[in-house]
Amino acid sequence: MAFVQNHLLLLLTCFIAIIVPTTPQPCNSYPFPKHINYAACEDLPVLETSLHWNYDPSLGIVDVAFKKANAKDSSWIAWAINPTSKGMVGSQSFVAFHTSRGILKAYTSPITSYATMLQEANLTFPVYSVSASYTNSTMIIFATFQLPQNNTLVNHVWQHGLVSDDGTLRPHSFSGPNLQSFGILDLISGKVSATSGQMHSRNTLRNVHGILNAISWGILMPIGVIFARYLKVFDGLGSTWFHLHRACQSLAFLIGIAGFGTGLYMGNHNGVYHSPHRCIGITLMCLASAQVFVAIFLRPKKDHKKRIFWNIFHYIVGYSTIVLAVLNVFKGFDILNAQKIWKKTYVGIIISLGIIAMILEVITWIYVCNKKRVKNPEEQVETSQQRP
């Protein structure tokens, strides 16, 4: 009787092992070789895969390990990020497979079409290392690369397929989980999402940031300088130039504060870091704040002996702000990968303002010269009348 019970128990155990699928290990419990540790990991929703990574925000460098469980030695795996769009085309991939000689090979491959054969080539961003391992039916790709534009919210895709006998990679399946293996990866929060809502929200915030700063620092402030430099020459306008200058610069400063705030928010909450652009932005805000403070609280009267030093400071800070602002707007266009029409539009605006400034420069010089000519004969007449 005991013999029969033992055999029934053995058969039942085997039956359960066959019909119940093996549950993969959670990503944070996998022991990597050489005691490699990753600060974040996420079990991906399909294809028995997980992603592990370390991210250095100051350098924009990512160490990543893409793991595929239950991988055959005749299969290939790939993980990629897409810096330009969502989906497969445009993805920059890391691939691993066993060659026909049984050697495990890892390399990079940019995907330019759906008919890709995953040919080996350089990616659009720097890759510092790529390797792979295969142990106990687990294939892992290890890679270290420079995050494009240090954008921590990225589209990513992953796949696996079979390798033919001659070592070429066969296309992956076009049904089921293989068509669901894409999503959005947040390197800061460690979240992996299959929806584009967060990406849309961040892109909207980036666009708002760009528009606010382009209008304030890049357009309104140069216009305010034009008002101050050229309109005050004409006596008939009185203090109109000053009111226009102050209104334009005040509006630009307020909008600039909003744009600066969105930039700080993205840096602190979304992990968006672009060091040169960020440093120039902080410098601009410091210069503009100093300019406003000095203009309101430390401006001496026109006949004061220290007024000349105030003027020098005002001019240097003002023109420095304009130059840095225009430079940073162009950097912003490059960071946003803005359509050429927007960049061309801004270039057109700057060129138009430059042409207007040149025309006004000529007009004001002519006006000043004529004014001096009229004034000199009058002074000569007054001098001759005063002689005995």
From TrEMBL:
InterPro entries: AIR12_DOMON, Cyt_b561/ferric_Rdtase_TM, DOMON_domain, UCP037471
Entry-linked Pfam families: Cytochrom_B561, DUF568
GO molecular function, one term: metal ion binding
UniProt KW Nucleotidyltransferase keyword: no
Cofactor: heme b
Keyword Glycoprotein found: no
Subcellular location: Membrane
Protein name stated in the entry: Cytochrome b561 and DOMON domain-containing protein
